[in-house]
Amino acid sequence: MRIHALQTGSVRLKRAFLFPRSGVRRQLDLFLPGPWSDPVPILCWAIEHGDRLLLIDTGEVASARDVPFARFEVEPQQELPHALAAAGLALEDVSEVVLTHHHGDHADGLVHVGDRRIRMGDAELAFIATPFPRLMRRVLRQPLPDGFAPEPLVLAASPFGEFELSLPLSEDGRIVAVATPGHTPGHISVICIDDAERHVMLAGDVSDTLEQLHSRRPDAIAPDPKAHVVTLTRILAHCARHPTVYLPSHDPDSTLRLAEGSTVS
Predict the structure, then answer these.
(1) pTM for this structure?
(2) Cα distances (angstroms) measured from residue 181 to each of 145, 194, 229
């Protein structure tokens, strides 16, 4: 098994996004003036396993519109096809795409993948059909990609480590989707058991950084902060039982942790 970090540009995030206050200011501060972070990566992931090339998320595109709490820095030559090529991979070899959740910096690259199989958690598909996320997509001018129609990925009540809901994505059980609600209600992560028997967790936006995981700090986006804390606590419990390389999509250190096989301590 080989796992590749694919960077599709960068994004600057408002500090209120990364370190939100509690109460009503948690989300209100996203729309008020405030300091910004340095650029952080927009990562997606490619898994070579057997005769398959599986993509986890698809990254962002150069046409992405800024929102009050995120400023995108993406050039056309940083989009998914070029990120794959930089890793020595080819778009035509991709067999399937799994999306951790529906936000544009994870799904907008679908414009490049053509008719390949695309899957996303059934709970996330149900969530994005409800009125509030539909309204916010209009307000923030963040439409779903043209032709957005993932197949529902249905996680079963089948424990994997500390996770109650899971679904194998490979016949040998070494690639597994697990439910990690919080950032969005239907968010999933993908855990790979690598050749050294470590668990490599492709965590999407479960947290923005490893520091946030350790702090068990809910983010400013999560509709239910308490549910987010439950998930962060569950991940830490999983890491305590299984050596885990934790790779959120916007952590500047994720690529280094992958290269070094550095596990959560």
Answers:
(1) 0.96
(2) 22, 24, 10
For residue 49 the two structure tokens come to: 């396993």
Structure tokens at 78: 């940083």
Measured in Å, how far apart are the chain's first and last C-alpha atoms? 23
State the residue for tokens 């098994």.
1
Phi, psi torsion values for 160, nearest 5 degrees: -130, 110
pLDDT at 136: 84
| pLDDT tens digits for range 113-129 | 988 999 999 999 999 99
CA nearest 155: which of 181, 179, 182?
Answer: 179
Q: Tell me how far the alpha carbon of residue 109 is from its chain's centroid.
A: 13
Of residues 62, 52, 254, the one with CA closest to residue 169: 52
Beta bridge partners of 223: none
Q: Which residue type occupies 260? A: E
Domains defined along the chain, listed by start: 2-260 (3.60.15.10)
Beta bridge partners of 98: 56, 119
Q: What is the pLDDT of residues 39-58, one digit of tens each?
A: 999 999 999 999 999 999 99
**Per DSSP, what are the bridge partners of residue 53?**
48
Spans in the chain with pLDDT lower than 50: none
Q: Amino acid letter at 79?
A: E
